[in-house]
Amino acid sequence: MKSDPAKARRFLVVRLGAIGDCLRVLPAVARLKRERPDAETGWAVEHWVAPVLKGHPLIDRLHVLDRRELKGGLRRALAEIRRFTREVKAHDYEVLLEFHGRFKSGLLAWLSGVPLRIGYARGHESEGNFLFTNCKVRPADAWESRIYRFLSLLGPLGLDTRYDPQALGVHVSDADRRWAEEAYAAAGRPALAVFPSTSAHRARERWPDDKWLALLKQLNADAVGSMVLWGPSEKEFCAGLVAGAGAPCRLAPPTTLPQMLALLARFRAYCGADTAAMHMAWMQGVPVAVIAGHKPVRTIEPPPPARSRMLFAAGHYVEGLKPSAQDDRVVSAVPVEAVRKAVHDLLA
């Protein structure tokens, strides 16, 4: 039997990853907790993303799925799924919000036994996810901002789905805030955060290395101090950029995800690709210059009033063509001078 959405108080959020998408679910969770302050909220998330959500005051508990176990062979994968679903069922959730929209998340949602499972209508999810939910939401625009898309799942609960830029739900612990302030001060308080890398599966969205180097050298000549941040497996590449650019460009120290979140709040502007670091920055009020990649700009662009400059080679972009079919020159052909100007505009 389905729960009455108007009376439900126990909610399970399903967004297993990625980091940037989990961050963009937070405004929806903040709205849910604001309108139903007595709500109990669990969040199903994969182990590699969990640190950025751990200790969050809007989340009563995390249900952590270990992706390493899922990849460790059939026996280990089935054991992990059984463990995970037993843990979820023990909390007797009334409503599940399926923000992820893939086969794996849908199967886990169905196995959870939650009676009301709100997800996206066919064509607005992927991999047959619609088969596992029993209350469908059809966004007006398939490529709208993820922020708006995620808020739309609150509609069947009778909640306000409008975006509130004052309630983004980002949380930084006092310890991480202190660490970030010390690290930022030790680096000389540079104005600009730079994140030149992308994940391996999004390598097409990576701006050419020689252009990053040329940009950093030009910003040095403009007396714009910068810090290059990096993630796992990216240190050598980023250290090479910093060495090639020279001072005042600095390499960031190693960070955990929560430390990176705290550190990015310190800068006057951010420059990089459409990555988790970009969302960490703008969601804390930092203006962002984004080399936007192959998706429609409206999908990536921070909602107003956030300040941003979205950069792509318009001559190579075909409106209406799916991102996987776009010409890679939509990224690689973005001029260094255009990015430099965007940075100066945001710092002005």
Summarize the entry for a quick read.
The chain is of the alpha/beta class and 348 residues long.
What does this structure look like?
The chain has helices at residues 19-35, 67-70, 74-89, 103-111, 146-151, 174-186, 209-221, 235-245, 257-264, 276-282, 297-300, 329-332, 336-347, and strands at residues 10-14, 40-46, 61-65, 95-98, 116-120, 135-137, 192-195, 226-228, 250-251, 269-273, 288-291, 308-311. Strand 7, helix 7 and strand 8 (226-228) form a beta-alpha-beta unit. The chain is built from 13 helices and 12 strands. Helix 1 runs parallel beside helix 10 and helix 6 (174-186) packs across helix 9. By secondary structure, the protein is an alpha/beta fold. The chain folds into 2 domains: 10-157, Glycogen Phosphorylase B (Rossmann fold), CATH 3.40.50; 174-347, Rossmann fold (3-Layer(aba) Sandwich), CATH 3.40.50. It is 36% helix and 15% strand.
Topology:
Blueprint: E1 10-14, H1 19-35, E2 40-46, E3 61-65, H2 67-70, H3 74-89, E4 95-98, H4 103-111, E5 116-120, E6 135-137, H5 146-151, H6 174-186, E7 192-195, H7 209-221, E8 226-228, H8 235-245, E9 250-251, H9 257-264, E10 269-273, H10 276-282, E11 288-291, H11 297-300, E12 308-311, H12 329-332, H13 336-347
Parallel strand pairs: 1-2, 1-4, 2-3, 4-5, 5-6, 7-8, 7-10, 8-9, 10-11, 11-12
Task: Considering the chains and any ligands shown, give keywords for the structure.
single chain; 348 residues; alpha/beta; Rossmann fold; six-stranded parallel β-sheet; 15% strand; globular
